[in-house]
Amino acid sequence: MIENRPGLTFFSHFILWLGVLIVALPLWIAFVASTHSAEQLIATTVPLWPGDQFWTNYSNILTGPASEAVGISVSQLLLNSLIMALGITFGKIIISMTAAYAIVFFNFRFRMFSFWLIFMTLMLPVEVRIMPTFQVVADLELLNSYTGLTLPLIASATATFLFRQFFLTIPHELIEAARVDGAGPVRFFIDILAPLSRTNIAALFVIMFIYGWNQYLWPLLVTTDESYYTVVMSIQRMLAVGDDEVAWNVVMPTTVLAMLPPVLIVIFMQRQFVKGLVETEK
Amino acid sequence: MSRIPAFNHRWLPWLLLGPQLIVTLVFFIWPAGQAVWQSFLIEDAFGMSTEFVWFENFAALLTDEEYHSSFMTTLVFSLGVTGLSMGVALLLAVMADRVIKGSQIYKTLLVWPYAVAPAVAGVLWLFMFNPTIGIITYLLDQMGYTWNHSLNGGQAMILVVIAAAWKQISYNFLFFLAGLQSIPRSLIEASAIDGAGPAKRFWTIIFPLLSPTSFFLLVVNVVYAFFETFGTIHAVTQGGPGGSTSTLVYKVYDDGFIGLDLGASAAQSVILMMIVGLLTVVQFKYIERKVQY
Question: What ipTM is given for this predicted complex?
Answer without folding.
Answer: 0.89
